[in-house]
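pasting for the record
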Amino acid sequence: MKKSLLSIIAVMASTLLLMTAVSCKMDNSAIESTTTTGSISGRITLDNSLTGNSGFLVFVAGTSYMAMTDDAGNYTISGVPAGKGYQVVATKNGVIHNLSSNVKVTANDVTKLSSNNFTSKELDNTIKGNDGNSIIWLGSFTSSAEINNPSNLNAFFNTTDGCSYIYISNEWTYLAKSGTDGIVWKGELLTAPANPELNWAYYNTINCSSYIYNGESWNLLAKGNENRCLGAIVNGTTLTGWENPDGAIIIPSGVTCISERAFSNCKNLTCIIIPNSVTNIGKDAFNFCSNLTFINIPNSVTSINYQAFCYCERLTSITIPDSVTSIGESAFRGCSNLTAVTIGNNVTSISESAFLDCIRLTSVTIPDSVTNIEHAAFCNCSGLTGITIPDSVTSIGGGAFAGCSGLTSIAIPDSVTSIEEGAFSGCINLTTVTIPDSVTNIKNRAFSSCGNLTTVNYRGSAEQWAAISIGSDNNEYLTGATINYNYTGE
């Protein structure tokens, strides 16, 4: 007997299952482990493409061990305690996929998983319900007989009678009333679309459930994990806050802006998953989230504002995507456990104090798009042992690298004409500096307290060196060093 839409909803609600949610708390009950660690690596592709595979979050279920795929789809989850019984899961666009079960990690070794490929249809044509359990839309057919070996929750549009059907409990039943187009999927939205028409359906990113319009009202289509985004406080498409943020949070798709101080001082927040609908991270958005260990910045974000992540003391790495054009003042200031930073290829300026007091920062990649490194941008990054300043940089601000006691050498690019006051002051282990003949002005204290500076490789002549205006205040280590004129080395 063919069933009504409301009865289908009841059946679906009873058949959907829950999958392990993202958690940042280790559950040791099912995993044998020791204190030594290893890594898990693999590759995920979309439509078998060699590029465009970034944005998959890969994590060990029930833990805070996770990584994002790069453009090629590669990922490495580091620091996983040695043991067995791990489940590795990936998520993108709100859909969760199991990659591998019963994974074993060996100490000081890399466990390589088989490559996985997903199709755009799997990610985009799924009417989402609970994580990993949702309607799979198969498309249009003249009858159900054209579909071989249907699975539970498969659905299709019947072009013969103009109705949509779903496969539940080994039989095809009505999903939507008759209409010329069957289900009209409207996408992932924060609220119901305006002026709905018959058989419109959408996924509500706040309560993680799907709805369909029956011509008079919105009815539940597939019930999801309502608690996943339940605390979100949204005004339009701006996320203004979260009720009682704790542990891992998935920001609902459709949010375009995370507003000023949205998560400021949220001490219990450990993980944040930001959807690729977000373009702007407001000032102080996550500042003083002292237990935040992981955050992804999607390739939709164009600006990271003032103090957005300052004093997030447990963050260890940050990748700023190519979509970002500006890094705000003090954006990552005081992130004392940050060790690696990759800056996207469209950032033009690293603002004042952007990475001030990131004392464990050892690696930073500055792209050729950057023209300005502002005042104190990397001040007191004492763990920084080397940095390449690209030829695109024309200005190095005062105190930009002051207190970088791990630096032993630095090369100023040919594009720079002035080394500002205190730029490298307090670099106590700096022994060698390479200066181009484009520099005409070295200001006071540019190299103050650089007591080990013994060699200056100058790319110009002795006459050009003599013509440089060198501030007399605390630059004696620079002027007292051995000058290698007409230097041509690296």
